[in-house]
Design brief:
This protein is of the alpha/beta class. The protein folds into 3 domains: 61 residues, OB fold (Dihydrolipoamide Acetyltransferase, E2P); 86 residues; 162 residues, 3-Layer(aba) Sandwich (Rossmann fold). The protein is built from 7 helices and 22 strands. Helix 1 packs parallel to helix 7 and helix 2 runs parallel beside helix 3. It is globular and about 65 Å long.
Length: 397
């Protein structure tokens, strides 16, 4: 095996690579675009397939641009793995990947891959959209990890972040093994919280700048969310998804709704307003910090109950059927067991959100196996400059 190959990149693959072939073997090539001829370095041998990085572009795609992130790329930070693709082209690649995964893993034909695309979020700006980020530390400095590496890149000029977002955080004598959580909130304040390094069984947390909680707003509702807890990274995503859930849930007075993997209760808010005083909403998450934020933000909605537990245990404890369930699971997806429980509970309408194409497709396939049909499906470019997406589907039966 030669570690340097000349390859022609084929269609996009899930995970940010393009599919190429060398002497009959599949090679997943990062930092290439479909149709490009590249000089690539093999970085991993998995037997039946290889992974490679494009080192030199011999014949460039018309969709290739000067990178919009100065620190990403081969041997750079792993932050912006599609920074070299024109934003419109990147959205087409993402749509094609989701269509492929849905057909292959979910048994659902959404769109032809050549006609699929992800939608921009908010104004659709490819840079400066991220409002939350975590940095790791080593040798007194903070940085981003290289792709699949423990090594850090300490140049902090990531294209996803607004200019100045990380000013003053690069060199500050940070202890090795700490995490720096940075949030730019909806009041324009920056908050920096250090967690770790872990000492024995204890992980200390201290506020470096601002407060431990950041102010986040969606329409007229206000949340105070720990900087270390989950909140949508894209400045416009929380509102876009909240408005979409309000539109697609079809709730009315007296209905029962479940908000599963609910975090700080963004969706529980619009569901609680929709079901009225006679209705009931349960929002479930394992995070105590997120649950505290949900209880405070939704205190004016007595019809919303906040449960700090696993979704599996919370569903097992329910004695009444929900009219609609909203799921926003982690990257690994909800999985067959949870979807089996929703089907057994005879929930007629489900809004399922997924941030990883393969797990989202498998979850859609599990719903279809229970007789659900896909009523609506949209894919969002919620993470510009990267291969990541957010998909939202309505499933009914």
């Amino acid at each position: 095996m030669s570690d340097k190959l000349t390859l022609t990149a084929g269609p996009p693959a899930n995970g940010g690579s393009c599919v190429a072939r060398h002497e009959g073997r599949v090679v997943f090539v990062r930092y290439a675009l479909p149709g490009e001829r590249v000089r690539a370095r093999v970085v991993a041998d998995h037997g039946s397939y290889w992974h490679a990085d494009a080192l030199e572009i011999l014949d460039a795609s018309p969709d290739r641009i000067d990178p919009l992130c100065p620190i990403a790329g081969v041997d750079g930070a792993g932050c912006c793995d599609l920074a070299f693709a024109a934003p419109e082209a990147a959205r087409r690649l993402k749509g094609a990947v989701v269509a492929n995964q849905l057909a292959k893993l979910g048994g659902f034909d959404w769109r032809d891959e050549s006609d699929a695309t992800a939608e921009p979020v908010g104004a659709g700006a490819p840079t400066g959209w991220r409002t939350r980020v975590r940095l790791d530390t080593a040798d007194g400095r903070a940085g981003f990890h290289r792709y699949h590496s423990a090594e850090l890149v300490t140049d902090l000029r990531c294209g996803q972040l607004p200019e100045g977002a990380l000013d003053g955080l690069g060199e500050n004598g940070w202890p090795t093994g700490a995490h720096l959580h940075v949030a730019l909130d909806d009041d324009g304040a920056r908050h920096v919280v250090q967690s770790g390094p872990r000492v024995g069984r204890r992980t200390a947390t201290r506020v470096i700048e601002g407060d431990y909680e950041a102010t986040q707003r969606v329409n007229a509702r206000v949340w105070r969310v720990p900087v270390t807890a989950f909140w949508q990274a894209h400045r416009d995503a929380a509102k876009v998804y909240s408005d979409l859930v309000a539109q697609w849930a079809h709730v009315s007075d007296g209905m029962v709704a479940w908000d599963l993997y609910g975090g700080a209760g963004i969706f529980a808010g619009v569901l609680g307003e929709g079901v009225g005083e006679r209705g009931r909403v349960m929002t479930v998450d394992t995070s105590r910090g997120a649950s505290r934020s949900a209880r405070a933000a939704l205190a004016d909605l007595p019809n919303v109950s906040v449960v700090t537990d696993s979704v599996r245990r919370a569903l097992a404890a329910q004695s009444e059927r929900a009219d609609v369930a909203v799921l926003d699971p982690p990257r690994s997806g909800a999985g067959r067991e949870i979807i089996d429980m929703l089907a057994a509970a005879e929930v007629p309408r489900v809004i399922h959100i997924g941030c990883e194409a393969a797990s989202f497709a498998r979850d859609v396939g599990s719903y279809l196996a229970h007789g659900y049909q896909v009523e609506e499906l949209r894919v969002f470019d919620s993470f510009p400059l990267t291969h990541h997406i957010e998909s939202v589907a309505v499933l009914t039966r």
